[in-house]
Write a structure and sequence with these properties.
Layout lengths: L4 H12 L3 H14 L12 H16 L4 H17 L7 H16 L5 H28 L3
Length: 141
């Protein structure tokens, strides 16, 4: 699978106008399909939704700036260790993220777009997962 920055950015442009609806939908989907992860999150998700939206925007913005992107993802991985997240949670999150993006992208969501976002999420899970695992191993979380 390869990442096509043009498809990522054009599909994000189609999604961007929906703003907080996107993150609200994501969490509804995640908790409906993976209720076991619900306790990892605060009862009220407003702040978390804002952080998720900012992280998605940073991912798209820095997609072709590997050094910055890796730094952002490593920081997210370390912070998620403190929230009780585990690499085993990443597939559930990825599934809900892709379903949400597809829902809001409309005609901009093609098989090629899905493949590209899946590849992006693979990078996210790899980098965040390594940072999260390292943080858990040091006992800092």
């Amino acid at each position: 699978m390869t990442i096509n920055p043009v498809l990522i950015k054009s599909s994000y442009a189609a999604i961007e106008a929906h703003g907080s609806e996107v993150t609200a939908h994501f969490y509804r989907h995640l908790f409906e399909h993976h209720p076991a992860v619900r306790p990892l999150f605060a009862e009220h998700l407003d702040e978390q939704q804002d952080r998720l939206w900012a992280a998605i925007g940073a991912l798209v913005t820095h997609l072709e700036d590997t050094e910055t992107l890796v730094g952002v993802l490593e920081g997210l991985g370390r912070r998620h260790a403190g929230y009780g997240a585990l690499p085993a949670h990443f597939p559930a999150v990825g599934g809900s993220l892709l379903a949400t993006l597809a829902h809001f992208a409309g005609d901009a969501w093609t098989p090629e777009t899905e493949e590209s976002w899946t590849a992006v999420y693979g990078v996210v899970t790899d980098v965040m997962g390594r940072a999260l695992t390292a943080e858990l191993a040091t006992g800092s979380a």
